[in-house]
Amino acid sequence: MARKTEPTGRGLIRAGIGGWTFEPWRGVFYPEGLAHAKELHYASRQLATIEINGTYYRTQKPSTFASWAKDTPPDFVFSLKGPRYATNRRVLAEAGESVTRFVDSGIAELGEKLGPLLWQFAPTKKFDEHDFGAFLDLLPKKAAGCPLKHAVEVRHASFCTAEFVSLARKKSVAIVFADHATYPAIADVTSDFVYARLQTGKDSIPTAYKPADLNQWSERAKIWASGGTPDDLPIMDPSHKLSRTSRDVFIYFIHEGKVRAPAAAMAFQKRVAPTGKS
């Protein structure tokens, strides 16, 4: 994943959406009459990043990753969701084959456009330090010579412990911050990048989130990018002294308010310019 830092000492802040194929976006986000085959080309020139959900459900071909890379501008980045076959299992330590199959499926064809790999766990999956640590040990640092970054989205309250945060930090894996009605919110920084999924937007609001809320999230993103931690978000391990180092930040507007998610990402991106793409 390409590393960019602004003169301000902040990492690059990227805002985006989940996927690019969604019928209700046609005529709202996408211009009327735009060919479906042109939607990625268009979306990648309005947004800084897209989180791919399709890799969660099925294996993609190397040629597919190569075509995505070719269809997007030089400064664009994808994040890829790891396959459900790796994360939706009773014993995570046994996920090695699924992890390897995904990493070797051609993701390196994205080159510098390959951003974090997102590993999402079921809301019923509880924290087991030994088993979860064994899973993190399965995550490779490279794919065909391309450096890899990993993020984990846990959705059970048992993960709200200093032990889990310490484990993620030891493995240099980012914990996804979830703005969600029921999933746990863990804002501890455990890697050299930050990954947040904002999931409480509403389609009744033109930008999914109210302007004041977008302002608040943009300020939080700037703090993360400057190496800090927002003081208004929950921390599980307050005793840890965070190194003040600039970090890249990935913010995705997804789940609720999906029709307005592209507008939210674009409005957010303007608020964090010039650090991000505007």
Structure in a nutshell:
The chain has 278 residues and is α/β, with parallel strands linked by helices. It is built from nine helices and eleven strands.
Commentary on this structure:
The protein is α/β, with parallel strands linked by helices and 278 residues long. Helix content is 27%, strand content 19%. It is built from nine helices and eleven strands. The protein has helices at 39-43, 54-57, 62-70, 84-87, 96-103, 129-137, 162-170, 211-225, 261-272; strands spanning 13-18, 49-52, 77-81, 114-120, 142-143, 146-147, 150-153, 174-175, 177-179, 193-200, 248-256. The strands form two sheets. It has a nine-stranded parallel β-sheet with strand order 8-7-4-3-2-1-11-10-9. β5 and β6 form a beta hairpin. α8 crosses α9 (261-272). The chain is globular.
Overview features:
single chain, 278 residues, alpha/beta, TIM Barrel, nine-stranded parallel sheet
Q: Give the overall shape.
A: globular
The CA-CA distance between the termini, in Å, is: 20 Å
Radius of gyration: 18 Å
- Whole-number tally of structural domains: 1
What order do the helices and strands follow?
Answer: EHEHHEHHEHEEEHEEEHEH
Per CATH, the architecture is Alpha-Beta Barrel
CATH topology: TIM Barrel
| Quaternary structure | single chain
The share of residues in helices is 25-40%
- Counting H and I runs of at least 4 residues, what is the number of helices? 9
Q: What's the CATH class, please?
A: Alpha Beta
Secondary-structure-based class equals alpha/beta
Low-confidence stretches: 1-7
Give me the CATH superfamily.
Protein of unknown function UPF0759
Q: Which sheet architecture does the biggest sheet show?
A: 9 strands, parallel
Strand content: 15-25%
Strand arrangement, major sheet: 8-7-4-3-2-1-11-10-9
- What is the average per-residue confidence, as pLDDT, rounded to a whole number? 94
In total, how many beta strands?
11
